[in-house]
Structures are given as structure tokens and as C-alpha cells.
Design goal:
Layout (H helix, E strand, L loop, with lengths): L2 E8 L6 H12 L12 E6 L6 H15 L5 E9 L3
Antiparallel strand pairs: 1-2, 1-3
Length: 84
């Protein structure tokens, strides 16, 4: 069965306290090369049958209507992922 992955991230103008905490922790651990961390959500949807452009568009609509809080989050990706 195909796996569709939906990635949701906080909008750029929204503060990300979890990301800030991880950024500070990485700096304390000596990883100064990491400038900023933003933490989002990943949803994995298993679907029946072939993945078409129409199905991906339907999943994007579901993501925007149900999976993301579009006031503070953006759906940044909807793609098919190969299973290992």
C-alpha cells in the first residue's frame, strides 16, 4: 500500500518555543553550526490503490481542513514515500 506523507510546519511569523529550546540545547552541547530549529508535524497516510494527482490534491485538501491549524500552520509538503 502506498504511503503519503504530509508535512506541517508553524507559519514563519509564529513563535516556535520547542524549536527555540532545541536550538539553545544544541548550542549548549557545542553544535554552534545549527542556527535555528523549527519543529513541525509529520502525518503518514496509507492509501489503497494507485496514487494519482487527484488523490494527492484530495489529501492536500484534507491536510489543510483537518490536519493543520491553518491559522498558525502551513501544509508544506504532500508526497509519496517509498517504504523500506
Amino acid at each position: 500500500m502506498p504511503l503519503i506523507v504530509v508535512d506541517v510546519m508553524p507559519k514563519a511569523e509564529i513563535l516556535d518555543p520547542q524549536g527555540k529550546a532545541v536550538t539553545r540545547a544544541l548550542a549548549r552541547l557545542g553544535h554552534e553550526a545549527v542556527g535555528q530549529v523549527r519543529i513541525g508535524k509529520r502525518f503518514e497516510l496509507t492509501v489503497e490503490g494507485e496514487v494519482t494527482d487527484a488523490l494527492l490534491a484530495q489529501v492536500r485538501t484534507v491536510a489543510e481542513d483537518v490536519l493543520a491549524n491553518t491559522v498558525i500552520e502551513d501544509v508544506v509538503g504532500v508526497h509519496v514515500e517509498e517504504r523500506a
